Amino acid sequence: MAPRGVSPRRPLDRGKPGQQAIHRAHPAAMEKYEFPAGSMGPKVDAACCFARTTGRTAAIGALADIEAILRGKKGSLLDSRFDGVVFHP
């Protein structure tokens, strides 16, 4: 699953000194973050639901970046096999 649009790679705490972009995460670990309903919220919710119910990886990012997302260079990956949250360097 690859919902279209901006990904959680868009930094958490955007514009603040400690901003971080999510690289990969366990769906349950995403619950501690708040994503706006009018922006990333529905995409993150759908990706978490997909990863939980199918046991497969969900990717969030721009369709133009799909090859880089699949290589782990861009976007965010959600999977129940991942531990916690790993941020992009």
- Structural class from helices and strands? alpha+beta
Count of extended strands:
4
Helix content class: 10-25%
Largest sheet: 4 strands, mixed
What is the first-to-last residue Cα distance? 24 Å
Q: Could you list the spans in which at least 5 consecutive residues all have pLDDT below 50?
A: 1-9
Count of DSSP helices? 2
**Looking at the structure, what is the overall shape?**
globular
Subunit arrangement of the protein: single chain
Lateral strand order in the biggest sheet: 2-3-1-4
How many domains would you count in the coordinates?
Answer: 1
- How much of the sequence lies in strands comes to 5-15%
Would you kindly provide a written description of the structure presented here, covering whatever features stand out?
With 89 residues, the protein is an alpha+beta fold. It has one domain. Helices cover 21% and strands 15% of the residues. The chain has two helices and four strands; from the N terminus they run βαβαββ. It has helices at 41-54, 66-70; strands at residues 22-25, 58-60, 76-78, 85-87. It has a four-stranded mixed beta sheet with strand order 2-3-1-4, with helices on one face. The longest helix has 14 residues, at 41-54. It is globular and about 25 Å long. It starts with 21 loop residues before the first strand and ends with a strand. The model is unreliable at 1-9 (pLDDT under 50).
